[in-house]
Amino acid sequence: MTNILITGGAGFIGSHVVRLFVNKYPNYNIFNLDSLTYAGNLENLRDIEDTDNYHFIKADIRDSQKMLSVFKENNIDGIIHLAAESHVDRSIENPTIFVETNVLGTVNLLNAARHHWNGKFDNKLFYHVSTDEVYGSLGETGFFLETTPYDPKSPYSSSKASSDHFVRAYENTYKMPVKISNCSNNYGSFQFPEKLIPLCINNIKNGKPLPIYGKGENIRDWLFVEDHATAIDEIFHNGKLGDTYNIGGLNEWTNIDLVKLLCNTCDELLGNEIGSSQKLITYVTDRAGHDMRYAIDASKLTSELNWKPSVNFEQGLKKTVEWYFNNTDWLENVTSGNYLKYYEKHYNNR
Ligand code: NAD
Ligand code: DAU
Fold first, then answer.
1. pTM, 2 dp
2. Residue 312 to residue 318: CA distance in whole angstroms
3. What's the CA gap between 238 and 234, in Å, rounded?
4. Mutate to test the pocket of ligand 2, among 151, 154, 213, 280 (most ligand atoms within 8 A of CB)
5. Given Cys at both, which of 62, 157, 298, 332 links 152, Cβ 3.0 to 4.6 Å?
6. Which residues contact 336 (CB under 8 A, 6 or more apart)?
7. Domain 3-191+223-249+293-311 carries which CATH code?
8. CA dihedral of residues 15, 328, 260, 90 (deg, nearest 10)
9. pLDDT, tens only, 68-120
10. DSSP label at 220?
11. Nearest atom (ligand 1) to Cα of 61
C-alpha cells in the first residue's frame, strides 16, 4: 500500500496518527481528509504540513460523491478512518449529527472503497478506529474483551457501534479487507479542551471551577495518545485481516482521583502549594445515562503484536500538562476559534 487516506487527521488522535505515518513512512503518500469541524485544527499538524508525502483534503465524509472522487483521484489503497463526532455530551445535546457523520459517513467511505477497489482487494485495507464505549458499562469487576457483546448506551457510542457493524457487514458481504480497533480514553497534546483532562488543565491555569459530574466515582481507563498511534500503526501493518483489537493501558482511575492527581501535577509545575488547586473541584449535575466503568483487556494486542504503552500515567500526565502550559497560544486559539482563520489564511493562499 502506498496511498493512505487518514480521515479526521486534523483532530486529536488523527493528528498524532498522521504525524507518525508521515515521519515513519516517507514512501507512503498520506492524504489527511478532514472537514475541519470545531474539533479539527490544522495547527495540530504545522510541524509536518510542508513534508513532501503529506497532502490535506478538506472534505466532508457525509458527501458520498466526494468520497468516491477522493478514492479515485488519489488511487487510495488503504484507509485509517478516524473522522467522527467524538464527544458524548454533544451527542446527548444533538444525536442526529452523530448518525450523519459516524454512521452515514462511514458507510459513504465503505462504498467509495468498494467501488474503487471493485473486488480487487490485494494490498487493500479499510481500518476503522472505534471506541471501548461500544461495549457499554462495566460493574466493579471484569474487562472488555474483543468478544464482549455490544451494549452501547449513549447516542455517541450507539453511532460508533453501528459504524463497527457496517464495517463487519462489508467484510462479510463484499469480502472487503477490514480491521477494527476499540480503544479506551486517550489523553495528551492537541486534545480539544471540552474533554475532561484538557478542560481541567485549562481551568486550573485560569483559576476556574473543575466540574465533576455526579460524585466523581465513574471510572475510565486512560491511554497516552501517542501510544494509541503506535498501536494503530502496529495493527494497520501486522494485525490479522478481519480481526478486532482492543487497545488500552491497564490504567483505571475514578474521575475524582484523576482530577486530584491533575491538580497536584499542575501545582507542581506552576510552583503552587501541592494540592492547592483541589479547592477548584466543584461537583455538578451528572451526565445523563453516565456509563460507570470502562476497562480494556488489551492482551490480544500485547501478545500477538508485541505492543506496549511507552509511558506510565504519571509520566504521560506530566508531559501532557507541560505541553498545555507551553502551548498557551494553541489553547487560546482553540478556545477563541481563531484557528479557523488559520485555515483560510494558510490554504486559500496556496
Ligand atoms: P476529535 O473530535 O478530536 O477529532 C475528530 C476529527 O474528525 C476532527 O478533526 C473533525 O474535524 C473531523 N470530522 C468530524 N466530522 C467530520 C466529517 N463529517 N467529515 C470529515 N471530517 C470530520 O476526535 P478524537 O478524539 O481524535 O477521536 C478520533 C477517533 O477515535 C473517533 O473515531 C473516536 O470515536 C475514536 N476514539 C476516540 C477516543 C478518545 O479518547 N478521544 C478513544 C477511542 C476511540
Ligand atoms: O472511552 C473512549 C471514549 O473516551 C471516546 O470514545 C470518546 O470519543 C472520548 O470523548 C472519551 O469519552 P468520555 O465521555 O469518557 O470522555 P470525557 O473526557 O468527556 O469524560 C471523561 C469522564 O469525565 C467521564 O466519566 C465524564 C467525566 N467528566 C467529563 C467532563 C467533560 C466530568 O466529570 N466533568 C467534565 O466536565
1. 0.97
2. 10
3. 6
4. 213
5. 157
6. none
7. 3.40.50.720
8. -50
9. 999 999 999 999 999 999 999 999 999 999 999 999 999 999 999 999 999 99
10. E
11. 19
